[in-house]
Each structure stands twice: as structure tokens, then as C-alpha cells.
Amino acid sequence: MGGVKILFAYKGRYHIRDAVTIEYLSAIAKRYGHETGLVYDQDIFGVTDNILSVPALSRIFSGTKKAVEKAVSGGSRIVVFLDGFTRRGWNDEVSGGIKKADAAIMTVFLSHIAPRGSYDYTLIGEPEFAFERFLSEGCCDSPGGTRSFKGLADLDLLPLPDKSLFAPYVNFRDSYLVYTGKGCRYGCSYCEETVYKKFSGGDYFRRRSPENVILELEEAKKRFGIREVIYKDSVFALDKRWLKEYLAAYTRRIALPYKCFGKAEAFDGELASALKESGCYCVEFGIQTFNESLKRDILKRDEKTEDLLKAFAVCDRYRIRYDADHLFGIPGETVDDHKGAARIYSSLLYINRIKCHNLVFYREADIFEDAPQAVKDDMGRNSDFFSSVSGEGAMMRPNKTFQKLFRTLPLLPAAVKRFFTRGENWKAFRFSPGVLVMFFMLIIAVKNGDRRFFVYLKYYPSRVKRAVCG
Ligand code: SF4
Question: Does residue 323 share a domain with residue 454?
Fold first, then answer.
């Protein structure tokens, strides 16, 4: 197959793994002499929007028609779709629309998991590995159908992700996202990383070499003048040997402030000191719940509250801000769990944000067995950890109220915190308007120098404008 134009169709926010996977796919296509382009629905106010998920507004800004038109007029022979838990319907509709408008355009569907919909080519396997094989074997010249590709890409042999693809939509200068590896060592029952590991095998969790990551960041500094790095790895602060080599090079050659994810059980003073010295200004920890039996039995997270408290204390000692990811909608959760969590969060010194998420029951994830019947029966359900449904039945109202309280809590003076975490006083938060909560979150961001939150708000108007104007 000679050089052709390949379009990648994607719906969702940029700051997740799938967008970077598409950048890698684009870089691989270019390595094989092809030109690439992007059909992008930013999912403004949609289920993947981690701060402003508003279904009614999402329907106004998002649609398949525009994506089909762009794909058909893009002068491409091939349009590639990457499977994703939140955009399966969108993928199917856009590919169907493209075939209807121009049957000569070939559609390619890439999935870790299984075929679906009707695409000319379906490639099952790790996307980077499968796509590279597909191109190297000149498969677009062969008859269509489904093929499985067993194996994993060598992360250091992949070309660096093609940043030009999303450059018109994303400001890399203010905040540059990077993954230093793929997968996760752990196996939480609700997590997409666990699903991908289940389908791709235990070796799926691996890391790039320090040098390979540094080369990407050097290129980003040169090209975009980046001012901050966001490590999006499941757990960045984990392997001390890798980190020692990496952070030494990072301090010497990159030296920019950064934010990353940590894991409580592996977090200690040595790690905190190394992070702080190399520019880390905030570590994000997955908490989900402080109810240890729910965490162990339902979420399959063998994590002790004691370890979390130790990790927070270490951050307090080293004056590193930390975010806490808290999950609502866990089957079996109670108001008492939330009240206990509120008391713990109130006692923390350097806490930055308590990020509230709603549990999603992916059909392929182990937690699906524990999903409420209504969720199991709803085949078309499309939600993400940020969208608006939180829990079921009698827990829905308390969940919404505690989310407002948690988002505000880091800002409140000690006496006010004590008041709201006593008895049933949390209920007063039920009446606080969402706009006010957002305002409080903004103040927290200003107070703590949380650059990431600012960058999100700063570019939201231009994202909306682009969604309207195309
Ligand atoms: S630790 Fe985080 S990334 Fe890893 S499996 Fe659990 S939820 Fe997923």
C-alpha cells in the first residue's frame, strides 16, 4: 500500500490515555509514509468532561453529523476508530454514516477486546501493536474482516507520539501530558486498565525507558515551550529504581514543575523527598472509600486506611499538595462511610482537591457482577466516572450532597469543617448551588497554585467556540 491519507476519528476529552494512543497510531502511520489527520469531537459538556458534564448541553455541542461530513470531505481513503467505553455508539454511528456517504472509504476498528458494529477491518489486540502489523503487512490492500494480533508493542521502539494531531485543540505549552508506561500493576475490579490487562496478558503493564520519556519532553520543550508536565500513568511514583534514574535526568534536562499519581502503600519520605526536589507540586492518590471491606471485596483494592493516612502525613511533612480521588456509587456504601471520609478529609493539612467520581460498571470489568440490576439491563448506558448519576435509590441524594461538601471541604476553616462533619449537618450542603461549589473550587485552585484546574477553565471557552464553529 503506497502512502495514503489516514484519518483518525475520536470523541472524548484529550487528557486520557486514548488520545495519546491515537497520537502513537498517527506516528506509526507516518513512519510507514502515510499522511494523517483527525476528526475530533471534543465531547464538550459530555460524559468524559471531568468538571462540566451536562447532558442537555452536551446534546447541543456534540453530534455525529459534523464528524461524518468532516471525514468524508477530508480526502482520506481510510478512517480509523479506536474502541473506547464511552464512545462505542459514536464510533458505530460515524463509521456507518461515512460508509453511507462514500462506500469507497475504508473503516478500520481497533479494539483490545472484541469486534463490534460493521467496519471494513477489525483489528483485535493492543492498538499500537495491531496497527503497526496491519500497516506493515499492507493489509488495506487485502480483503476486509476481523484479525487478531497477539503481542505487545515495545514502547521504546515506537515513534514518539504525534503531537501535531491534537495541537489545534490542546494547549501543550501550559500543561503537557505524558505517559511513562502502559497499564497498571494493580487489578481494581472497576478499572479499564484491569480490563485491558485481562485481554492483553500480564505483561501489559510496562514502562518506557527514562531516556525515551526524556526525549519526548525535550522535544516538547523545544517545540511548544512547555511549562508544566502532567504524568498520567496509573501510578507514577512507584518503582524507586526507575524513578531514581528518571528523576536525575529530568532534573538535569527538563526541570519543570509536575503533577503525578502515587500509591499510598509505596509512598514514603524517601520518595516524597525525591519528588519534591525534582519539581513535583502535587501527588494524586486513589482513595475511593475508607471502608476497607468495601474496598477489598467490591473494588478489589487491598489498601489500608492506615497506609493512606501515612502517605498524607508524609506529604504534609514535605509540603507537597495532594489530590484525593473519591468514588461514589459503590454497591453497599452508606452515609456513615461518607461521614467518616469527611472527618478524615477535614483533618488533612496539604490536601488540594477531593475529586469526586461516580462508579461506572463497564460490562467487561469484574465489578459488573455487582452492578445494580437497572445498570445490567441498560445495554445503551453510556457514562464515565465524571458524569452525573451517582449511586442508586436512597443513596443518590446523600451522594450528591457529599460530593458538594467534599469539593468544598479543603477551603473551609477548621471550625466550619468541624460543624459540617458533625451529626447530620452535612445535609445543609444539599442546598448549595453548583455554581457556588465551582467558585469554591476555583478559590482552592488559586490558593494552592493548582495550575491544572486553571488551564482547564482558561481554555474551556475556546473549546466551546471550536465545537460550534468546527
Ligand atoms: S490502581 Fe488505579 S489504575 Fe491501577 S488498577 Fe487500580 S484504579 Fe486502575
Answer: yes
Same domain, 99 and 206: no
Question: Domain containing 181: what range?
Answer: 176-469
**Tens-digit pLDDT profile for residues 52-103:** 666 666 666 667 888 999 999 978 889 999 999 888 889 999 999 999 999 9
Clarify whether residues 191 and 134 are in a common domain: no
Give the residue-averaged pLDDT of 207-221: 98
Whole-number Å distance, alpha carbon 235 to ligand 1 midpoint, is 8
- Evaluate whether 305 touches 311 at the Cβ level (below 8 Å): no
Ligand 1 centroid to residue 102 C-alpha, Å? 41
User: How distant, in Å, are the alpha carbons of 131, 275, 325, 369 from that of 261?
Assistant: 29, 11, 10, 28
CA distance linking residue 333 with residue 291, whole number of Å: 8
My answer on whether 259 and 310 are in the same domain is yes
Which atom, in ligand 1's list, is nearest to the CA of 187?
A: 5
The one-character DSSP state at 38 is E
Q: Domain boundary at 129, 148, 167, which?
A: 148
133 with 183, same domain?
no
Percentage of the chain modeled with pLDDT above 70: 89
Q: Which residues line ligand 1 (CB under 6 A)?
A: 184, 186-188, 191, 193-194, 234, 286
- Helix, coil or strand: residue 254: coil
* 270 grid coordinates: 524517601
Q: What is the pLDDT of residues 337-396, one digit of tens each?
A: 999 999 999 999 999 999 999 999 999 999 999 988 888 887 666 666 555 557 778 899
Residue 159 lies in a domain: no
In the reported structure, the alpha carbon of residue 187 is separated from the centroid of ligand 1 by a whole-number distance in angstroms of: 6
- What gap in Å lies between CA 22 and CA 28, rounded to an integer? 10
- How many whole angstroms from 112 Cα to the centroid of ligand 1? 18
**Model-level pTM?**
0.90
> Would 420 be classed as within a structural domain?
yes
pLDDT of 250 > 80? The answer is yes
Same domain, 259 and 385: yes
CA 191 to ligand 1: nearest atom: 8
H or E element, residue 72: helix 64-72
